[in-house]
Write a structure and sequence with these properties.
Oligomer: heterotrimer
Radius of gyration of chain C: 20 Å
Structural class of chain B: alpha/beta
Shape of chain C: globular
Helix content of chain B: 25-40%
Shape of chain B: flat
Radius of gyration of chain B: 26 Å
Distance between the termini of chain B: 66 Å
Chains: A mainly alpha (268), B alpha/beta (178), C alpha/beta (265)
Helix content of chain C: 25-40%
Number of strands of chain B: 8
Strand order of the largest sheet of chain C: 6-7-8-3-9-10
Largest interface: A-B, 35 and 31 residues
Order of helices and strands of chain B: HEEEEEEEEH
Strand order of the largest sheet of chain B: 7-1-4-3-2-6-5-8
Number of helices of chain B: 2
Chain lengths: 268, 178, 265
């Protein structure tokens, strides 16, 4: 008797997991389809570029404050932590290299993507979810305007354009923050700080690769935010769950992609 | 927010991004010390190059005068052949020494050129004959241990009546660098 | 060219094993105001979406202007839709655009008119609904009734042949109710359009409708002029039209015997 009920509950759990897996795969397919449609309907974004500019304002410019402040603090902390360790080996002048490489290669693109997902991604999901819930997307369809061309695609391109810009600003501000901590406060030699950095930071391996990474992250985060909003159940609860899913999924995807991209870039 | 204000802010945003990128390229990267300009190539053979890598700097008197182009292995002489590109502005005499140094304690290895006194200069395709290998940590440690071992052996011998001749302290290196 | 601008023929629609419409036959003549009424969940709004081509029927046809809706390709559907205007239940105004921009939206998307012409047209439409002075407000600054009127102005922006209303009277105060009611009729006659109203409001609808379809249990239970339906002896129609508490739609949700359940305590 006990055994059979245990079996039943095990089967039920497995079925539940299986259903959820199928649901996730279905959503992955739906997301890919939305991505394809977005690309196909992108013509209008560039012909009437002011639509895209509006969205760049919402996603990029409005995220500037959090990116600059975070970049500054991350740079300063890197300088402090790095100095503490490096001075044990008498290499405290390598602090510039440490900060620059950490930011350009990893922290710049990844942290910017995580912050972007939290700030701009959730805003996009909430906005589109709300438009769906208040039937604005339906209204657009009935007016023979494709909501994908008018609402989704401009936000997509805005995110893809904004992300590398934000990541670059993050890195630069971080290096400046590190400079301000290392040179005036700690007392590292200014010339050594910059020259060691210049000698060891390569445009192609470090700066360009960092930009490529943030470009890829931009595509991923923006698309996830758009899909969650578009697919959200048109209720208040549905929209709020969708925004949570945006942040979680974006973060996991960014970290996973980071690993994949880093391994490509380091071997090539 | 009307259109012109939004356009303004987006313009500022993109300008900031461009400025950051420019700043990174100039101040942080090696754009200013890029390998623009004509160079001439010479080769140098080493028994051990340590961890020298292509694109490592080539310095003389501490100034970067070129970069390592290529590193290959010669299976006839079993030596490493390093091809370096030297900036055309800096001619070097034929009897230049090429050494492999380490920058700082944890630093990367680079090629150091010490000019000799020959009047004839190195030309494109010439070979530097005087080379000194990289210092390999394991060899240094084993030499250090060996020298320490023979030192203690000498002391033991000295403390005994002088019937045996003392052996030379054979150290290939002087003081330990540590 | 029949006199009917929209025809629904033997329509059957449902999802996941539940059939919403079993066999619907309706005709909407040009220039008339036709109401579709029924209880909640009887699939009235779905009928509007079928006419608009947002969903496809399982069986049967929806014909707009003689063309079968679900056989059209994307361009065909958009062409047919450009002749339709729809008023959604809560207005569905674009919240990031002003009242002016909302009404101008269809004009900007579908015509190449210059700004001066658009401005004139928008103000004309807003004037027709009495909100010309509010053109600069944002949707969140409007009351419910005003928002619905702006939506109406947007729905008629391109002078459509078919105007569809999804519960236009829901949640309005008496004044706004009267305003919307009269606007529906007057705009329909002024534009020579056909209006399709989905509603469960009896009094106001009957005062302006030319013909009424009554939908229940997936079929057209009754149809006729408002006068006919008021006289109808069909129990279903009678209960609805006269707002009776109990009838074919029972007051009590099916439950066990009352006494037996109480005694079990």
């Amino acid at each position: 008797m006990i055994r059979s009920s245990l079996l039943v509950s095990v089967i039920r759990t497995l079925r539940g997991i299986g259903n959820r897996m199928i649901e996730r795969i279905w959503r992955l397919g739906a997301g890919a389809r939305l991505f394809l449609l977005t690309i196909i309907y992108s013509g209008d974004c560039f012909r009437r570029f002011h639509l895209t500019i509006r969205e760049i304002y919402s996603t990029g410019v409005m995220s500037l404050l959090i990116i600059i402040v975070s970049g500054f603090f991350v740079g300063m902390v890197l300088a402090l932590q790095g100095y503490y360790t490096l001075q044990k080996y008498g290499s405290s002048e390598a602090i510039g290299v440490l900060v620059a490489l950490s930011l350009l290669r990893e922290l710049g693109p990844v942290v910017t993507a995580l912050l972007f997902a939290g700030r701009a991604g959730t805003a996009i999901t909430a906005e589109i979810g709300l438009m769906k819930a208040t039937e604005q997307l339906s209204a657009m369809e009935m007016m023979a305007v494709s909501p994908i061309a008018r609402v989704i695609a401009p936000r997509f391109w805005a995110g893809v354009i904004s992300m590398p810009i934000l990541a670059t600003i993050f890195s630069m501000v971080g290096i400046l923050g590190a400079y301000l901590v290392a040179v005036p406060v700690i007392g590292v030699d200014e010339g050594a700080f910059w020259s060691q950095m210049q000698a060891n930071v390569d445009i192609h391996i470090d700066i360009v690769n960092g930009i490529i990474k943030s470009f890829v992250f931009g595509i991923a985060c923006t698309m996830i935010a758009l899909f969650e909003g578009f697919d959200a159940p048109p209720t208040a609860e549905g929209v709020s769950r969708a925004t949570t899913r945006t942040v979680v999924t974006s973060s996991l995807v960014v970290l996973g992609l980071d690993f994949v991209l880093t391994s490509f870039m380091l071997t090539v | 927010m009307d259109r012109t204000t939004i356009d303004l802010w987006v313009g500022v945003f993109i300008a900031l991004g461009a400025a950051a990128l420019l700043g990174l390229a100039m101040k942080v990267g090696n754009l200013t010390t890029g390998r623009v300009g004509a160079t001439y190539s010479v080769t140098a053979a080493f028994e051990n190059i340590g961890s020298l890598k292509p694109r490592a700097p080539v310095k003389s008197a501490g100034v970067v005068v070129g970069h390592v182009n290529n590193i290959t292995f010669d299976s006839k002489t079993f030596e490493a052949v390093v091809t370096i590109d030297i900036d055309q502005r800096y001619p070097f005499p034929k009897d230049t020494f090429a050494n492999i140094y380490t920058a700082g304690l944890l630093g990367e290895q680079y090629v150091g050129l010490e000019a000799g006194g020959d009047e004839v200069e190195l030309k494109n395709g010439d070979k530097i004959t005087q080379t000194q290998d990289a210092v390999v940590l394991e060899k240094m440690i084993s030499q250090f241990l060996y020298s320490k071992a023979s030192e203690t052996k000498d002391e033991v011998v000295k403390s005994e009546p002088a019937t045996k001749t003392s052996e030379d302290k054979s150290t290939e290196l002087g003081d330990a660098p540590f | 060219m029949t006199n009917n601008i929209v025809e629904i023929d033997n329509l059957s629609f449902g999802y996941k094993g539940r059939l919403l419409h079993k066999s619907i036959n309706m005709a909407f003549p040009r220039g008339k105001v036709v109401a579709i009424m029924g209880g909640s969940g009887s699939g009235k709004t779905t009928l509007l979406r079928l006419i608009g081509g947002q969903i496809r029927p399982n069986l049967g046809e929806v014909r707009v202007n003689g063309k079968v809706m679900h056989e059209q390709d994307r361009a065909g559907i958009y062409q047919l839709r450009s002749k339709m205007g729809m008023l959604f239940q809560h207005g569905a105004l674009f919240t990031d655009l002003s009242v002016f921009e909302n009404v101008a939206f269809p004009m900007r998307e579908h015509t190449d008119l210059n700004e001066a012409m658009i401005k004139d047209l928008v103000l004309m439409k807003l004037n027709a609904v009495g909100l010309r002075g509010a053109y600069n407000l944002m949707p969140n600054e409007l009351s419910g009734g005003m928002a619905r009127r702006v939506s109406l102005a947007r729905a008629i922006a391109l002078d459509p042949d078919i105007i569809m209303y999804d519960e236009p009277f829901a949640g309005l105060d008496p004044i706004s109710l009267r305003v919307i009611c009269e606007l529906i009729r007057s705009l329909n006659d002024a534009l020579g359009a056909t209006s399709i109203i989905v509603t469960h409001d009896v009094q106001d609808t009957f005062s302006i409708a030319d013909y009424v379809y009554f939908v229940a249990n997936g079929e057209v239970a009754a149809e006729g002029t408002p006068h006919d339906l008021m006289q109808s002896t069909l129990p279903f129609v009678h209960q609805f039209v006269h707002a009776e508490k109990d009838g074919p739609v029972p007051f009590h949700y099916p439950a066990g015997d009352y006494r037996a359940e109480l005694m079990h305590e």
